[in-house]
Design a protein that fits this description.
Layout (H helix, E strand, L loop, with lengths): L2 H26 L3 H17 L10 H26 L19 H19 L2 H12 L4 H8 L3 H23 L1
Helix pairs in contact: 1-2, 1-3, 2-3, 3-6, 4-7, 5-6, 5-7, 6-7
Amino acid sequence: MQSDERARDVDALARLWGSRLYAFCRRLSPSRTDADDLYQQTFLRVLDMAGRVEEDHNPAGFLMAIAARIWRDEQAKRARRHRIAPVDRSPDRVEQAPDAGRTEQIVEEAMLRRQVQDSVQKLPDMLRMPVLLFYMGGLSVREVAEALHLPQGTVKTRLYQARQQLKSELEGYSR
């Protein structure tokens, strides 16, 4: 495939699935800058690929699987670097206050959504990655297993463990 044709394919993928991929990158990354880098690296990786992404084979899931692999590799690099020379990194996440004009129900739903997101972010990476790929990415257990290079049974176990941890933590919020 020629580079012009590949660039058009990547551009089409970005238009169709870019916002969904970016939201996934923001869930994975602690900062907006890291999410931006991950998003760009994902499309660069797709651009470097020899084959074409087929529209009927879950292209959003395919993109998220690539992002997840890149993120996992970056985490491993950071862990190695941190062991050699520790660095203090503070996330640039800014909390937004709820709009005062909204109804009580909308505020409660936003707070619950935030609690769930925070709880998912607290999960260890081995549990958080399958949760994000399965629930947010819309990948099947088989696709998550392929993306993470794990057996399907391991993915199912990790999803179960993550749900149990989330349930336990979120029950604490309602008390």
